[in-house]
Specification:
The protein is mainly alpha-helical and 182 residues long. The chain is built from 7 helices and 3 strands; from the N terminus they run αααβααββαα. The chain has a 3-stranded antiparallel sheet.
Length: 182
């Protein structure tokens, strides 16, 4: 019996149900991935990573939209600008955010229209713009930060520093592998 299946049986015995398990509906799963095989474990881990990421992003997005009106794309852009040297080119900002150009331009236009960032012509390259936070943009970052910190702590607060570092190391390794894939 796999670790995931064993944990599910323990959870069911205790009257709990594990979120992210799909044993109750994926009755043909073993036809595709043999139980306890390495590929079974890889599939389950990658599925849980995706599901955990989606649920976290949805939770944070809903919370911040309700409290600040800012979408994930907007607050991530604000934080990325705030965390680095300013002004920043749109090309550098797009690379830091891992977003494509059309998405970045829409976000930047909205932030500029709301007065949260300012754009100026790049004196070194007339085709590009430089972006920096306005005082209102910095105030929005400072408004969002405690909300994010509290939510992050609610999710991760019972993990110790070593556990957090181990998780981060594994995720970095996975991220680097994905980045190297053609």
């Amino acid at each position: 019996m796999t670790v995931a299946r064993g944990a599910k049986k323990v959870a069911e015995a205790e009257g709990d149900r594990r979120i992210g398990d799909f044993e109750d509906w994926a009755d043909r799963y073993d036809e595709f991935y043999p139980a306890d095989s390495l590929i079974d474990k890889e599939y389950r881990l990658s599925r849980l990573l995706v599901m955990a990421g989606r649920s976290w992003v949805t939770h944070i997005d809903n919370r911040l939209r309700a409290e600040t009106g800012q979408s994930r794309a907007r607050w991530q852009a604000l934080f990325t600008i705030a965390f680095g040297p300013q002004p920043v080119t749109l090309t550098d900002l797009g690379q830091r955010l891992f977003v494509q150009w059309p998405t970045l331009v829409r976000v930047i236009e909205g932030l500029a229209a709301d007065g949260l960032i300012k754009r100026v012509d790049n004196p070194r390259d007339g085709r590009s713009k430089l972006v920096s936070l306005t005082p209102e943009g910095l105030a929005m970052v400072r408004r969002i930060q405690p909300i994010l910190d509290a939510e992050r702590h609610a999710m991760l607060g019972d993990l110790g520093g070593e556990e957090l570092e181990q998780c981060a190391e594994l995720l970095h390794r996975m991220f680097e592998r994905v980045a190297r894939m053609p």
